[in-house]
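User: Small ask, check this?
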Amino acid sequence: MEHVLFSDAHANSKRTNNTINKALSLLSYPQDPIKFGVLIGCFLCWVAFLFVDHCIGEEDICCGLKVMEDLPVEVVGNILSRLGAARDVVIASATCCKWREAYRKHLHTLSFNSTDWTVYRDLTPCRLEILITRTIFQTTGLQGLSILMDDVDVFSASAVIAWLMYTRETLRRLIYNVRTTPNVNILEICGRQKLESLLLAHNSITGVEPNFQRFPCLKSLSLSCVSISALDLSLLLTACPKIETLELVDPEIAMSDAQVTVELTSPTLKSIYVEGISLDKFILEADSIECLHLKDCALEIFELIGKGTLKHFKIDDVSVLHLDIGEIVENLEIVDISNFTIIWPKFYQMISRSSKLQRLRLWDMVFDEEDEIVDLETIAVCFPQLSHLSLSYDLRDGVLHYGLQGSSHLVNVTVLEIGWIVINDLFSHWVEGLLERCPNLKKLVIHGIISEAKSHDECQILARFTSSIVQLMRKYLHVEVQFEYQ
């Protein structure tokens, strides 16, 4: 049997090598990670599995290695950069001389992530600094550098400064999330360079000088668990004349007075994501803003001053007393509101002129007044292009009836998502009423929360709901039904 396998393997070695050659030809498209994954999988599995099982000989391996040796060094650099993870890059670069040369001269992306290699967690910060320094200093022309070490408490300032000074002239993307002792002014080191994307976490930013610490190419800025004053945050945005994306996650806003107010201005900003922030007043002036997402925030006042470019508006678990997204909302396409106490008449008035609205999500809503309702008639009339509707809020006697009043249909709605927090017998009637108003519906998704300790009454309600839905959907055989329970 072993002789047969060996003979068959050599008989097919030419075909095997052709397979590898085809896989290697995928390197003409280094921007496609899927094709690159196929390549690496083919080659490594071919070498490791067949050689260990004595199905191929050294000639086959040498042939494959020669093909890799013949690749242009620039292409090899793209391959190594696609790997990204420093450990994998170092191992792959040991393949042959050309790959080592590509590592030194043509590697443009390098990543150190504690999730990539468990050994990182066993090393002391000092050993990690040495490892990172040696790896970075063997490269020239790095464009992307990522250092994400969640298990490291602190790096020395001297090491971090060395990494940044060595790479800053070519660096376009920087991700860094480790505290430094003492604090390193990353803005001062990387300012006035080619940096296009900066993600900074667990650091402090102080004394921003827009004229000196200017980022002429920066388009994406993300600050997570960063300590910064309201003034420095405003100045930092001013120092980025081309910024398009801003993320603020759990920032520690230093207070200069009793009232915490953040005022941000940017004519180029298109997307902003704010999470875990607590302020008295947040004013955003952005003439090009298209996407606004607030999550887990406590605000007294939020105001958006713009020119009606907003397309995507999302609020998730936000407490705000006064919300203003501007009077010009005609371009809104997506409104997603969840875990939010809402004054429906005021909120409806704010978005009622959004005739281009395509997706409306009102999820786990709490109404400020008990008799408030979300009526389908209003939604159908004001949002004629609506195609995806998601509703979830407590149903009460009387409110259900008024919410389904009217005769207008949601003719363009093809996907309907509905859910409950506490199920009752009104839910099945609500589903029936919604289905009647959506004549072109293609998909119905029902979300529900089921407690672990269910009473007899809860079981009976769920059983009645299941029976009614089965009976109801016999009338709508063309509609795909999907249940998602928690």
About this structure: DSSP finds 17 helices and 24 strands in the chain. Confidence is low (pLDDT under 50) at residues 1-17, 19-42, 44-56. Residues 2-70 form one domain.
